[in-house]
C-alpha cells in the first residue's frame, strides 16, 4: 500500500538526513525505533516493528509505501500523522494524506 503526504502549496521543509546508516531518520518520528535497510539519493527502506516501509519523493510530496507486513488502516493513519508532524510540524494544516495506486489505462 502506498501513501502520499502532500502539501497543498507543494512545500516540503528541508530535511536533515541522519548520519551514515541512518540517513532516513529525517522521515521517522523520534518515538519510533527503526533499522535502515537501504538508502539511495534520499530514498530507501526501514524496518519499524517488523514492517518494512519505503520512503521516497513524489512530484507533489513524500511517498511512504508498506513493502512488507500488515497494518490496520488506523495504525497506518497514526504512523502517517506522526510523520506529517515530524516533518511539517504540529500546526501545519496544509498537508493531506492520500492512498496512491496505479491508475488503470
Q: Tell me about the biggest sheet?
A: 6 strands, antiparallel
% residues in beta strands: 25-35%
Overall tally of domains: 1
Distance between the termini: 20 Å
The share of residues in helices is 10-25%
Radius of gyration: 13 Å
Mean pLDDT: 92
Number of helices: 1
Question: Major sheet: order of its strands?
Answer: 2-3-4-5-1-6
Contiguous runs where pLDDT drops below 50 for at least 5 residues? none
Please report the total strand number as a whole number.
6
Question: Which structural class should the secondary elements be placed in?
Answer: alpha+beta
Order of helices and strands: EEEEEHE
Please state the overall shape, judged from the principal axes of the Cα atoms: globular
Structure description:
By secondary structure, the chain is α+β, with helices and mostly antiparallel strands. The chain has one domain (2-100). Helix content is 15%, strand content 32%. It contains one helix and six strands, in the order E-E-E-E-E-H-E. The chain has one helix at residues 73-88; strands at 2-7, 35-36, 44-48, 51-57, 61-68, 95-100. Strands 2-3-4-5-1-6 form a six-stranded antiparallel β-sheet, covered by helices on one side. A hairpin with a 3-residue loop joins strand 4 (51-57) and strand 5. The protein is globular.
Task: Describe the secondary-structure layout.
Blueprint: E1 2-7, E2 35-36, E3 44-48, E4 51-57, E5 61-68, H1 73-88, E6 95-100
How would you briefly describe this protein structure?
With 105 residues, the protein is α+β, with helices and mostly antiparallel strands. The protein is 15% helix and 32% strand.
